[in-house]
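Two entries, shown back to back:
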Amino acid sequence: DQPALARKFLDQLMAKQVDGLIVGTGLPETRGEPTGMPPIVHVDDPSVGGYAVLLDSEQAGFLAIRHLIEHGHRRIALISGPLEWSNLRECYAGCERALRSAGLALDADCVAEVPAFTLEAGHQAAQRLLELPYPPAAIFGSADVLAIGAMQAIEERGLRVPEDVAVVGYNNIDLAALVKPALTTVSAPSYEMGAAAISMLMELMGGHPPKHRRIKLPTKLIVRRSCGCRG
């Protein structure tokens, strides 16, 4: 997520005459099929026009918010990385879709954008949300580390998860199952994404264009205890 650093690494790899590239978000210079570049497969960047393996982040946002609504929550907050990133915009759109389906809306005061996916960023964002005159009853973090940081902020205020504030994350990192209470999250199939990206790249490098230019992998809700379920 640092374009300048990504550009530096790209230059180093090009100097080594690599035969193919798998590129994450943060390198807009490679979008499309630039002249002089080896075959490229993008991952988790819906804005690209070339070959890409994507997550269904719109569905992830929908699943997370719908589950919180099913618990009876009506004022739900979102902690997200920069919404200018296309994958996070899709997640945001899924959140809005879930709320609309229940006759609700995402209050602008309850959307906290953060510059990085860190525990501290989630912690600080949750502090701001909890200081609102009408604080949220539930928080969805668009990454598990943001959600876990939010849980720390909630507990520091003498509140309980999920009794006072429910929390849901996204990614299903290993730590999500180890925190107390265990974090309900939307699982992203990162292993499958890597395998699909390599398979697509190998076809391109072999001169055989893949059947599909874009592959979208499904996401799945993993229910634990931070949302109010027994897990």
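entry 2 starts here
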Amino acid sequence: MATSRIATRYSKSLLDLATANNTLDAVKGDMEVIVSICAESEELRSLLNNPIVRVEDKKAVLDKVFANADTSTRSFISLLADKRREGELANVAANFIASYNEMKGIASATVVTATALTGDVLATMKSYVSTLLGKTDIDLTNDVDPTIIGGIIIKHEDKLLDKSVSKELREIRKQLIYN
């Protein structure tokens, strides 16, 4: 995740504020909503990064979009807009979630499979990744990529475990070409 110093500082401040107000879990939920909405809405990202739109108009839109958010979150979003840092909202939210997970000892990992994992298979995979990483609490997401043909790819921070069929086929191809 590419991030800026600004996003890091603001997310640290929000984490401290949420801890002091005992609203840490509520704010984390709000940050997850912010990350997903900003990822899905090109219009919102364009609005936040547009220097021509007045701050008051941006604040009005943000108030309506995040009307169900905790009061700490809404006032923080308003502060970001007042400081002309509303373009950093998604980065601040992503940094907040990462800091929250680090503080709570939650490791996040992504499992890439050819088909979606469900129920028991997902629970088994979560257990496997938990033992693999040596962490008890895992936030596991499943990405589907049919191009891997079969097997799994596990991503955690800067580590990658590739046990996919497509990788094995590439390795066989290399051996055939160079031998």
